[in-house]
Write a structure and sequence with these properties.
Blueprint (H helix, E strand, L loop, with lengths): L5 E5 L2 H17 L1 H10 L2 H18 L9 H5 L2 H31 L7 H4 L7 E7 L2 E9 L3 H4 L3 E9 L8 H13 L9 E6 L4 H10 L2 E9 L4 E9 H10 L1
Parallel strand pairs: 4-5
Antiparallel strand pairs: 1-2, 2-3, 3-4, 5-7, 6-7
Helix pairs in contact: 1-5, 2-5, 3-5, 8-9
Protein name: N-acetyltransferase domain-containing protein
Keywords: Membrane, Transferase, Transmembrane, Transmembrane helix
Organism: Lentinula raphanica
Length: 247
């Protein structure tokens, strides 16, 4: 029996169009769950939760009395659970609109009109699929379209995504390295930098960027109720070549 293998291949519009668009939208929204968890587990949220539950128990007279059975203590799960609901709803309501806005901006991006045409308009640009056992499990894009307009020496890494079950293998690092290698080929020596962005709400991407060699280059935006920082990241050709020669 042949074991399934992972491979990276070019985007095929006839085969990948709907799924890639879905994955790109999913990547834009996937930080929401992390934002909600981090908001709910914040010390201020936990303190508020305990306070609300205590006030509810006090108001209803539900504090166990001496001699009560263990059921009296177990019954406190109900008010504590009820007190968590408004905090969860408040967190999601406040975080969601940041990600809804991000998703709209991504889906209205110039590259989303015609994916194949956009990522074929420069020899460095590309949209690649990470595939395992015939299934799409990841996406990455490299955008060098600004070269034609401004003679820029910068390529942009976009839409980095890997399905959650495969992230523990750190295959996202291989996907990012594949795109970076395309940018820094000798025949395209005019490309001096690859830039992208990351946030702590997508830790698997941020960790992989660190391992590939992308360094922090300032803050471009904030996300969510607790204002998590969206960091600019940059990898230069010199740093890439140095890391390759030393590996």
């Amino acid at each position: 029996m042949v074991e399934p293998v992972a491979k990276i291949r070019p985007y095929s519009p006839s085969h990948d169009e709907k799924q890639v668009r879905f994955v790109i939208a999913k990547a834009a929204m996937e930080g929401l769950a992390s934002a909600n968890m981090k908001t709910i587990s914040h010390p201020m949220s936990i303190s508020l939760w305990v306070l609300l539950a205590s006030l509810l128990i006090q108001f209803m007279g539900w504090w166990p009395k001496q001699g009560d059975s263990i059921l009296a203590y177990i019954s406190l799960m109900l008010p504590f659970g009820s007190a968590a609901v408004p905090i969860i709803l408040f967190s999601d309501w406040n975080n969601r609109w940041y990600f809804d806005d991000l998703s709209r901006r991504v889906l209205r991006g110039s590259d989303m009109v015609q994916l194949e045409e956009y990522y074929s308009n420069h020899p460095i640009s590309g949209l690649w699929i990470l595939e395992f056992a015939g299934q799409l499990i990841g996406v990455v894009a490299l955008d060098a379209s600004s070269f034609d307009k401004t003679s820029s020496d910068v390529a942009v890494l976009r839409h980095i995504y890997v399905d959650e079950p495969y992230r523990t293998t750190n295959i996202q690092k291989d996907l990012i390295e594949y795109a970076v290698q395309k940018a820094f080929t000798p025949e395209h020596s005019n490309v001096k930098r690859v830039i992208t962005s990351s946030s702590p709400l997508r830790e698997y991407v941020e960790k992989a960027l660190d391992e590939v060699g992308f360094r922090y280059d300032g803050v471009s935006d904030t996300l969510g109720l607790l204002k998590w920082k969206v960091s600019n990241r940059v990898l230069t050709r010199d740093e890439w070549e140095r890391r390759q020669s030393s590996s």
